[in-house]
Amino acid sequence: MESLERHIEDLYSEELAVKTTATAQIGGLFRRVQHLPVLLQHPSLLSVLERCLREDGRWSLDLSIHILSTFFALSQFSQFHAKLLELRVGATAMDTLELAMRRVHHRESVSRPGTAAALRPATGSRPPTRTAADQRSSITSLWPPLSSRGPPLSPAPFSGADDGRLESLIWLALGALTNLAEAAEVAPKMLARGVVPLLARLLPWPSAHVEQLAITLLLQLSAPGDIIDTGIVPRLVQSVSCADQQTAELAMRLLHNLSFHEKGRKAMVSAGAIPKVTKALQRQPGGWAVLYHLSMEDAHKPLFMAQLPLVYQHFIHTEDFRSAPELLALAVNLTHDRRIAEELGRSKDRVGKLMAKARGDPLAFKIMRNLSQHGGPAVQALFGPFIPDIITTVMDPTSETELIVEAMGTLVNLSLPQYDWQSTMANSALPTWLASKLVVGQADDDIILEAIMLTATVCNKDSAPNTADAGLGQLLISLLADRKDDDEFVLQIIGLYYILDLLEDPNPAVEHAARVAVNVVLASGGHWAEQVTMLHTQANGSGWQDVPVFQQA
């Protein structure tokens, strides 16, 4: 500390070597935390260091490294950020990083073996990654960690003296910028300076630490549009499978952020993200969230066909779905695709296992509902043996509303002409249960609407007596009268009018169905029978009364 003023004087020297030595000595003083209060109170020390870096840094890598290591260490303490920003340390670090990258570009153009090729890989290729455990740096002795904040103080190793120092310089500049970017007002300035394209050039990079810092800074900037526009997505997709675990995890996190944007999802799919992220799931479970987002577009769903066995196995072996919400959401999305639904439900054994896992979980049961809707007749036929179990789930008093709706929706989707609904209705309390839900105010609207559709599904010529005995016809009419202001029920009323209009249809099957429907209405008597008779009398004249069903009425 006694030599501090002399070292500061040396910063004004005309000799670059003297300045470089002075910055190294000052760095040694900053290395001791107990000296920080005195050093930071000096009126000109930090400003002189910043000016020296700005004006002389381009002439000496060592000088730049010494000064940036000081600023990087200070940037790890948020209480010093205001002072560093006041001195425009962030702008100077950005300039230094740009200069370093221009040097890298120059060395690439020269293509001397052992220099540029070792420092920066060719575009589109991924170099052998040197993990953190393998890395040693020329500046390790300059600065031990001052705190747990910020990147670890072990920059990239060197391949050749200049290349090693250049990578150290890049690492320190990135570290300072990453720490300073925590301030909300700094990120927009970095974006305006074009930091994203600069960072894109650092992916991939032989040094794991440099690559990690570049991705970390991209995460902090929160500028998905700028990141996607640089064409960086394919490089991130490659990074999720790299050897260094921390780099792979950071790349996956950034992909997850970008996957919230449609343009980002398209870029990922084009870069082959689906198989690569799937392959990385064992090491990075967070990849399920990325796959879920990628499955949102219908055009992307068929691309998951090769990953379907893995999705099925994870679904079957997951003990608690609360720990895997993204897996469930992915399966729900995928089963909206016809081919995937057919493949997932291609056997009775598969449908049975899926049904066993879905029982009790509303979101898991939505997968079964999708299979019954999109799987086609072949898959629907496999649901037959499980209909009693689904009905049990529907009528279970402990089932939550969402589960009941999904289970009822599954039954509604089943079009099984050969299924014996009459026996099912006769041997279960389903007609009575449906009747209890069709009473106004006795159930949620979602359950009421599903109950109406389920009644239509289970009713046929054989099961009609069970339906009538439960009073479902009268309940439906009362429900229509009470909910006439609800669009869903108005649609049902319009449907009834349409059926009445089909009474004179030349097609015998249509006429028979219409007559049966009208007979149910007329049999109820009272207001609805009078309204139906009056409506068609007005619409078609007195000749309409000659229709046999009304003569009988």
Provide key terms for this protein.
mainly alpha; Leucine-rich Repeat Variant; disordered C terminus; 553 residues
> Whole-number average pLDDT?
81
Please tell me the CATH architecture of the largest domain by its name: Alpha Horseshoe
The CATH topology assignment of the largest domain is: Leucine-rich Repeat Variant
Tally the structural domains: 5
* Helix proportion: 55-70%
Task: Annotate the secondary structure layout.
Layout: H1 4-10, H2 16-30, H3 36-41, H4 45-56, H5 61-75, H6 81-86, H7 89-110, H8 116-119, H9 161-180, H10 186-192, H11 195-200, H12 208-221, H13 224-229, H14 233-239, H15 245-258, H16 262-270, H17 273-279, H18 287-294, H19 308-317, H20 325-334, H21 338-344, H22 348-358, H23 362-374, H24 376-381, H25 387-395, H26 401-413, H27 421-426, H28 430-437, H29 445-458, H30 464-469, H31 472-482, H32 487-501, H33 508-523, H34 526-540, H35 548-552
What does this entry look like structurally?
- The chain has five domains: 1-221, Leucine-rich Repeat Variant; 223-294, Leucine-rich Repeat Variant, CATH 1.25.10.10; 310-416; 420-482, no CATH class; 484-553, no CATH class.
- Helices cover 65% and strands 0% of the residues.
- The protein has 35 helices and no strands.
- It has helices at 4-10, 16-30, 36-41, 45-56, 61-75, 81-86, 89-110, 116-119, 161-180, 186-192, 195-200, 208-221, 224-229, 233-239, 245-258, 262-270, 273-279, 287-294, 308-317, 325-334, 338-344, 348-358, 362-374, 376-381, 387-395, 401-413, 421-426, 430-437, 445-458, 464-469, 472-482, 487-501, 508-523, 526-540, 548-552.
- Helix 2 (16-30) packs parallel to helix 5 (61-75).
- The radius of gyration is 36 Å and the shape is elongated.
